[in-house]
Amino acid sequence: MNVAVCEYGAGNVRSVVVAFERLGVDARVTSSPADVAAAKLAVLPGVGSAASAMEGLRERGLDAALRERVAAAGSTLGICLGLQLALEESEEDGGVPGLAIIPGRAVRLSAGRVPRIGWAPVEPGGDVFYFAHSYAAETTAAVSRSEGIVAVAARGSFVGVQFHPEKSGAAGARFLARCLSRA
Amino acid sequence: MPLPRLIPCLDVAGGRVVKGVRFAGLAEVGDPVELAEAYSDAGADELVFLDVEATLEGRAALKGLVARVADRLAIPLMVGGGVHTVGDAEALLSSGADKVSVNSAALVRPALVSELAARLGSQAVVVAIDTAAGEVWSRAGTERAGREVVSWAREAEQCGAGEILLTSIDADGTREGYDLEVTRAVADAVSIPVIASGGAGSARHVADVLQVAQAALLASILHENPARLTALRHELRKLGVPLRDAA
């Protein structure tokens, strides 16, 4: 298996699998910690609430599997809620402890219309990606931003993106291809 | 703010793209997967499939259609029509939809919006509102809902809606321009994105409504013709509308 896409009851994982398949790699949905450990690239997608998502990860033992994988330098990509879950904490649902893979916390967006939905440029680079979120990361691990909001955060072998590369057309496909080439 | 969005809307029935006149005389106009891909290539920022029949048999066909389209598309997909329960919405999302829109069912039972938002997240929940002369209409514009449009939009937001899809029945199909007045009234009253629908006849109309709404739904102006979308995006850029470059 090349790419393991974590399925833990949080949203549309099919689109993520399909996006990798379009790049010609073998991507599979899995809830198995062993698959997550063995994959060349593990992907933590997710939409919805932080509390129920963390519960879903714990029930399947995926929380520990993801922490161990990153500690062992295994390439891991978090998408949208997957980025927020990797932080130490989310202020959603009255405060939810995260995986603490990267420092910082997820805070509710306070400017503009929320949810923040639509395509927006990410700097540096200027590529335009699709966002759909009400919370965003506050972290010292930020590597790029969109309208001041953390768009990509990275620490060790973990990269988290606030946007949806699987829904971001050609720019998203190029981003996923870069993730694969670094994995 | 993210860039303004152009969202082609395709009517489907029994899993096929159809074109009807006032919901009668539905004729198949094209293969949904090919049409969706062509719109995506032409620069659509998002796509909507609206199930105009939403029958029980149609629902299974819709799920199949969503799966086939989502497997080929790399842009967001909204699906509306016939969502009455969280289970209906979850089935569409697990087939590959990114958001669902609810209309009549939410008017009957606003708690549906809260339930959807709690389970799927607000970003996946669109409340569609059909309005004429400030009133809300349900069941595809055939019944008065007994609500005023701005207060219903506010209530939908409070219930957890992530976007409002606002259709002016007065403007729909006229190609004389969006109803800017009602669109502005709703956009000013809520702090979630508003998608304007009904009345697009020219690039100027779309540019004007994108001054007050965050996205424009495009239906009859495109005539199921993706080439028209390419031309429209070009015209809008010349009018100074900052659209994304889809390349």
Strand content of chain B: 25-35%
Level-2 CATH architecture of chain B = Alpha-Beta Barrel
- Estimated structural class of chain B: alpha/beta
Measured by DSSP, the beta-strand proportion of chain A falls in 25-35%
Q: Please state how the strands of the largest beta sheet of chain A are arranged side by side.
A: 2-1-3-4-13-12-11
Q: What are the segments of chain B in which pLDDT stays under 50 over at least 5 consecutive residues?
A: none
Based on DSSP secondary structure assignment, what is the total number of beta strands of chain A?
13
Distance separating the two termini of chain A? 13 Å
Overview of the molecule:
The complex is a heterodimer of chains A (183) and B (247). Chain A has 183 residues and is an alpha/beta fold. Chain A has a single domain, classed as Rossmann fold. Chain A has helices at residues 14-22, 33-38, 50-60, 62-71, 81-85, 169-182; strands at 3-6, 27-30, 41-44, 76-79, 89-90, 96-97, 105-108, 116-121, 128-133, 135-138, 142-146, 149-155, 158-161. In chain A, the strands form 3 sheets. Chain A has a 7-stranded mixed beta sheet, with helices on both faces. A 4-stranded mixed beta sheet of chain A has the order 6-5-7-10. In chain A, a hairpin with a 6-residue loop joins strand 8 and strand 9. In chain A, 56% of the residues are buried. Helix content of chain B is 37%, strand content 27%. Chain B has an 8-stranded parallel beta barrel with strand order 1-4-5-6-7-10-11-12, surrounded by 6 helices. The longest helix of chain B is centred in the N-terminal third of the chain and has 15 residues, at 56-70. The two termini of chain B are 21 Å apart. The model of chain B has no long low-confidence stretch (mean pLDDT 91). The interface between A and B is large, with 35 and 37 residues.
